[in-house]
Adenine deaminase (Noviherbaspirillum aridicola), 337 residues
Amino acid sequence: MDASLRQLLEKMPKAELHMHIEGSLEPELIFALAERNGVTLKYSSVDELRRAYAFTDLQSFLDIYYAGASVLLKEQDFYDMTRAYLGRAHADNVRHAELFFDPQTHTERGVDFGTVISGIHRALQDAATEWGMSGALIMCFLRHLSEEDAFATLEQALPYRDKFIGVGLDSSERGHPPEKFARVFARCRELGLRLVAHAGEEGPPEYIRTALDVLKVERIDHGVRCLEDAELTQRLARDKVPLTVCPLSNVKLRVFDRAADHNLQRLLDAGLTVTINSDDPAYFGGYVNDNFTEMFSVLPLDQRHARQLARDSFAASFLPEQDKRRLMAEVDAFFAQ
Ligand SMILES: [Zn+2]
């Protein structure tokens, strides 16, 4: 890739809207936290753990992801994990980050909900103070668990309502359609929470449709399989429903065989509102700028696409309108230089 295009991608202001904070745990930090907390890992070294990151599908990744998260016990652990991610995002010129967290991964191990959210939230506050970087939290329900479990998690979350802005749906998609969570999403909607869901990553386009119609989500996480359904694609374009796309994740989890096979360009050509994100950066080979540079290296994308993706990352965010306008104006000023 052209050096000036690379520099543009790296330096441009951007938002990241699809990343799971537990997926930012680097093997070095997993080992450091394991030692600090006296947790025994089934991997003998950082290298052995990193070698286990050769995934074949979503489930093989999730198995290691949950093992990695087992070292998180105290509020400071959640703070340190979040702080490490935010530092990397800041270096990638991320100006606003909306982070997913998976409380059930921790509460089912006996870690208190308040411990989890307080540590993550404190790191977001420090990033705002030190770097002027805004952030928000979206609580995800694990879709392989029951809707009853999701309701119980929502109950635990309500005393901390001021610390998160919305809810999402993640974990194993196949066999767990959005409509399984119809009632809990309806309740979250009544509570004024913003709604998103993973759909159309490994699951069929139909899951995107039910996420919209039954759960009434405002954004689709992944959604790359929408192109299999022309009518759905037209609807997403017409209604400007953002798709938070994660290219390196899609390649690692074999949604596409190679980066060059990714349908990002076709999504853009279809008039969809698309953003680029890292998903689980420690596990999938890179942070948000790595995702941008990989896609622009292998697909015929240019400066106009870069500008559009940067603007849409803010447009698709849950920031107040005036903040969106200010940040999009910064993107325009950056590209005018
Ligand atoms: Zn995800």
About this structure: The first strand starts at residue 14 and ends at 20.
